[in-house]
């Protein structure tokens, strides 16, 4: 068996209760057959155009020799460094695939100017722009982050005397505006199945082209996925996707609506980050949803064990499940990466059925984009901070949050707004290559707030958990972290820079959360990021 799942305790009882209904409804075989009616009349039109992922393995097979041939051609030309410009599923799945295979792939899913410049310039270890091919991944090409990166690379290639047509590969939907412009510009184009949404696209051209060009054995990945397809297609209580769906979305009034994802000795790197966007964006809507929380084996939530948190623990070998028996009331999961992709996609779609929502739409994602566009058009003067302490500018959605006059008191006031069933969302709009330690803030906040805490790098989380923040239960409070930097970069053909873009994205999302949805938001801007991270950590403790 290529995938194994074990449930015990309360979650085991939930699964036992839910499985007869799931098998009786024939949902597993129905998904495999492309039955768009499974999620109700309101979702049928969307579902009819979003079930192509069930046939992704067979559709993608012919791509493998094409990708391999292009890689050989590039390597023969000395082009060995691969940069991927994409957002959401278009970047998160390739990141997991490449990291797990131990293959270098530069992921550019940020608008932080210094991070964009680093992707363009390269380094001594992986090579510079002269050795670089850029993969531009976007279903339509309208994604502002991806389009901006493409423009910046085109200009950089030309400045170096390189024809962008020799160094840019495009992955998009057939008939998209991006396909038309890319072919007109002479770029190499791979088209993906248009009936697959971005977050379900791991095994399509979006997942395979950048990783295959980087050197991953993508044929093996498809083999791993193929070995699981029969298991998830059968309406049986042994179907791992049915068990997993029941575990994460079952229980009715007793349902645990937060999903703790913890890796414990598995060879797969970064899988919870991919699952986070798949589950959060698929289920966080209509005031409902499942909030994934990416944890470490020593995270405070595992000690506190809040009643509304269901833990899923990833281990390498199902034969070792008995070693984790001390972790009662958890879901233990083991499987190859290809199998994980297939089972989690099926389970998430089935979870949508259990929750009574459409798992294929994302109705609230556009609101933050619209707010950012409005700010870019208007170019308003920055709002004055409520106060500045130790070089940290503090802005709040509610003046009473700033009454204490210190960063520590503002954080305490924010945590006090977390309801009994709530969570804290940390959003870091910074160059994460320079400030990776900020991710450690999550653990301190979780210990201090006493509730589950999510952490997202901005703006990439806007294409994943951003949907849950606005469309899910109104129980979140939000901490934004921004940086003040002298580094900026023009976006060719645009009336704004990368620095202005990321500032607008942060401000736009904050306004939608606070003004549109009544969520408390605290924004901390580090005026000297490297120097002030320590003071921020001290305040968080």
UniProtKB/TrEMBL annotation:
InterPro entries: G6P_Isomerase, SIS_dom_sf
UniProt-recorded Gene Ontology molecular function terms: carbohydrate derivative binding; glucose-6-phosphate isomerase activity; monosaccharide binding
Keyword Transmembrane helix: no
UniProt EC number: 5.3.1.9
The keyword Isomerase is annotated on this UniProt entry: yes
Parts forming coiled coils: none
Enzyme category, top tier: isomerase
PROSITE patterns noted in UniProt: P_GLUCOSE_ISOMERASE_3
Pfam families registered for this protein in UniProt: PGI (PF00342)
Reaction(s) the record says it catalyses: alpha-D-glucose 6-phosphate = beta-D-fructose 6-phosphate
Keywords of the record: Gluconeogenesis, Glycolysis, Isomerase
Pathway membership, UniProt: Carbohydrate degradation; glycolysis; D-glyceraldehyde 3-phosphate and glycerone phosphate from D-glucose: step 2/4
GO cellular component: cytosol
GO biological process: gluconeogenesis; glucose 6-phosphate metabolic process; glycolytic process
Family designation: Belongs to the GPI family.
Protein's name in the database: Glucose-6-phosphate isomerase
Biological source species: Microbacterium enclense
